[in-house]
Write a structure and sequence with these properties.
about 20% strand; Rossmann fold; 7 strands; globular; seven-stranded mixed β-sheet; alpha/beta; about 190 residues
Length: about 190
Amino acid sequence: MDHFAEFLRTPREIGTIIASSKSLVAAMVDWIEWDRVEVAVEYGPGKGAITREILQRLRRRTTFFTIELNASFAASFRTALPDVRLHEESVENITGICAEHGVTKIDCVISGLPWATFSDEQQDRYLDEMLKKMPPGAQFVSFAYLVGLPLTSGRRFKRRLDDVFTSVETSEIVWKNFPPAVVYRCRK
């Protein structure tokens, strides 16, 4: 199923009608200090637009896996990137997923999740579980569409990032994306 059709089927889960642009992907992955990353996780890889760029930057010994809840996207991802470990479940289960990989911490989370479409409770659960696995200095990068920034849930997500991370940078607007977006670059 294509991205647009999947969006029509589950808009709150998908968040947009097309995959992230190369410009948005670059604004996310170029910021990460890859030489400090031993364990990296991608939340919501969709069909792998960001994943492909992550794979170009990972060090050989870095543990990397992805988590995608949408069954259609997971099937497309497995076909396109069969060698990448994908967990078809909620990011809320990050502790158990880490245990499956024998890792106790995550140095970097790259998120493609549509945070502004989530309820307050979902935002809290997903962030709280993630933060339990992130040591001081760990990196978190995500994006927010401009159309979602004024929404209550979009504003709340940004406030929550400011509350739980020691540093939060907001990129300039990435106009070469549909819809345009900003990137949140956070350090614990």
